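2024-03-11 09:14:02 DEBUG pipeline.ingest accepted 1 chain
2024-03-11 09:14:02 DEBUG pipeline.ingest length=463
2024-03-11 09:14:03 DEBUG pipeline.predict start
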Amino acid sequence: MINGDIVSLDALRQYINARSKIFNNTGLLWILLGLIEGLDNYEIRIPECIENIESNEKALISFSVIEKNHGINKLCDALKETNLAYSRIILNTKSVEFKYKLDKSGNDYIAITEQELIVTGYEKSTVRCYRNAGRTFIIYSLQDIYKSGNNMRVKSGFYPTEIPSFVFPELTIGLLNVLSQKYPFFKDILADFVATGFVPKRTLKDCFKFTSRQELLQSFRKYKKLAIPKRINKVPLKEAILLCDIALLLSQRDQQRLFNMELRLIKKAIEDTKKYPDYAERRDDLSTFGVEYSVLNFFELLWSENGMEKLPKNIFEDYFRLKKTFKEPISLNKKSSRKIREEHDALALKYASKKMKKLTIPKNSKFNALKLPAEYERITTKKRLLQEGMWQRHCVVSYDKFINADKCAIYSKVYNGIRYTIEIRIERNKYKCRQIKGALNSDPPKEFKKEVADLLAKSKPIS
């Protein structure tokens, strides 16, 4: 099912070197040999028949690199001997196809296409193997590398690539190693990638201009006003970018303190980024305000070391949202959770009076199918939402954007003489209670939480 002879990496080098005379650009030969340098642990296949090297339409050199031990051929043979009918994907594996070709103008280039090989079975023992092509990279030289994709400014469908992060990391290492031999700054990028698997989102052409991490960071528009010190050159890029993201939230005085701090908390903040169980589902909510979880993790760790009592997650997150909204700096020296609560409540009221939008719930809201008893009041107007926030002294007024985007529904209910505010979301096509809060963000009784959960289980969103 997968054509071509399996060869060793040494045999591949011999295959390429034997055809070195066909390269118009000897630099491409050097690049190609550098790219394949770390592919010892992959299956390499060369086509059984060699194309006519005089043709401008066919590849002059062609080979594929595939994950080892994929077992596609064995699986296909086994399926052919069975009488079972399959109608789903049986197995898939990743591969990368290399071709050295000439374009219509006679210029030579290397085309690298990432693919997914998919084996399916249909109609008893008929087995088929499909290749789903992914991204294609075109290399004319180290200065001219392009990537396929959607870009309205480029009719051909190819545009200057960012630093490539190939499906096989060894290819990224190979390219960065080749680049670093001519452009010393790529040694830093290579070291960062080997250590963390991270490459910055800058085009290669931009990176050719940089001589340090400091210059690269200053090229980001959002960091233009930051006084990034030279010390940043000794910090791995992933950690340096987090430092800059945190600095954007601070006063100038605290920015300098931050850049002089040890990196222990920064490293731990990155490691703990996905510690929240609902990280994937809530990431969009936070990114709306430009606050990432790794930034929140840093402050949580720092303030904890300062002796601060841990804040409820919703208060902690909303505090950052509101600070970001009003462009007010956050202090590194916070020690009192009570003061943060007070500041949070004041910001929430400020948001309500100045920033709160009119509620315009879509007529076809996903929450229309939710049927709750009459004593559960759905809040649908700006006036009522503001009233709920003033009564309860919590931050429900800052949820106007989520209500208008139909991401949540807010209800109010008096239970045993106490009013509670309820936030309901849709997760995995089910209504879920995200939080229930009383005045000053007090927690509800377990019995009430169970009552709400049981009621939500009786309704299902309209698909």
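2024-03-11 09:14:41 DEBUG pipeline.report Confidence is low (pLDDT under 50) at residues 49-57, 151-155, 277-291.
2024-03-11 09:14:41 DEBUG pipeline.predict end
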